[in-house]
TrEMBL record:
Name of the top EC class for this enzyme: hydrolase
Domain YqgF/RNase H-like: 2-104
CDD domains reported for this sequence: YqgF
Protein name, per record: Putative pre-16S rRNA nuclease
Gene3D superfamilies reported in the protein's UniProt record: YqgF/RNase H-like domain
Subcellular location: Cytoplasm
Main location: cytoplasm
Recorded name of the encoding gene: ruvX
Similarity comment: family membership: Belongs to the YqgF HJR family.
Species assigned in the record: Gracilibacillus marinus
Length: 139
């Protein structure tokens, strides 16, 4: 199985996670700072990872509302997915990510990580939780 990329698309940052070669575990890779909606500000970093790691599948978190409805952030995530599909030969999978950012925050709080450090890792941790949820569902 090829490695899979997981993305947590926010308005200022994009958390990036990658799976192991067997598709069993996800780990946080990086956080991309970008200027929404200027997708070009993400392209160099994503291109490098997609090409180096031979990524063919990208899982993008959909931040649905708790009642299952979709708000503007879901539209923004889908638009970003369409952009990626136009740029790279990848399959885009959308994954319901309700609670992943809150879960990531809770894990970091329980680990007593300072607020400043939490801010630095929360996005890639959320991306890895999104990706791990997807990997668990297919394995």
């Amino acid at each position: 199985m090829n490695k899979v990329l997981g993305l947590d698309v926010g308005s200022k940052t994009i958390g990036v996670a990658i799976s192991d070669g067997l598709g069993w575990t996800a780990q946080g890779l990086t956080t991309i700072h970008w200027t929404e909606p200027n997708y070009e500000t993400t392209i160099d970093e994503l291109k490098k990872t997609i090409e180096q790691e031979d990524i063919q599948k990208v899982v993008i978190g959909l931040p649905k509302n708790m009642n299952g409805t979709e708000g503007p952030r879901v539209d923004a995530s889908r638009a970003f997915g369409e952009f990626l599909k136009d740029q790279f030969p990848v399959e885009i999978i959308y994954w319901d990510e309700r609670l992943t950012t809150m879960a990531a925050e809770r894990v970091l709080l329980e680990a007593d990580v300072s607020r400043k450090k939490r801010k630095k890792v929360i996005d890639k941790m959320a991306a890895s939780m999104i990706l791990q949820g997807y990997l668990d569902s297919i394995n």
